[in-house]
Fold this protein.
Amino acid sequence: MPQLKLNEHIHWLIVEKSLKGFSHRVIAEQLNISKSLVFRVFLKFQKYGYVENLLPSLRRSRILKVNDIKYLESLLKEKVD
């Protein structure tokens, strides 16, 4: 199943319904999405206060930059006493 990218409006609907007391299961059924997605969106709102996509900024880069490589090289060159 391809990953669904929800727009900000849907995220705010999830938050609104959660704050009104709807269960994650009911919200998921109404919006035709998974319960875990409802949970993650609402958890993000509780933690950060908004629902914009945070994932790209929170993920660690898997590609080393030039400065990272230089730092690692300097660590390898250090003598261990």
Remarks:
- The radius of gyration is 20 Å.
